[in-house]
Amino acid sequence: MIFPAIPNKGLYMNNFEFYNPTRIVFGEGKIGELDRLVPTNAKVLVLFGGESARKNGTLDEVTDALKSRQVGYFGGIEANPRYETLIKAVALIENEGYDFLLAVGGGSVIDGTKFIAAAVNYPGDKWEVVTSGGSTIKTALPFGTVLTLPATGSEMNKGSVITREELHSKLAFMSDKVFPQFSILDPVKTYTLPPRQISNGVVDAFVHVIEQYLTYPVNANVQDAFAEGLLKTLIEIGPKALENPTDYDVRANLMWTATLALNGLIGVGVPQDWATHMLGHEITVLYGLDHAQTLAIILPSMMHEKLAQKQAKMAQYAERVWGIHDGSEKEKALKSIELTRQFFESMQVKTRFKDYQLTQDVVEPLVDSLVAHNMVTLGEHGDITPEVSRRIFIASL
Ligand code: NZQ
Ligand code: ZN
Question: Which ligand is closest in space to the CA of residue 111?
Answer without folding.
Answer: 1
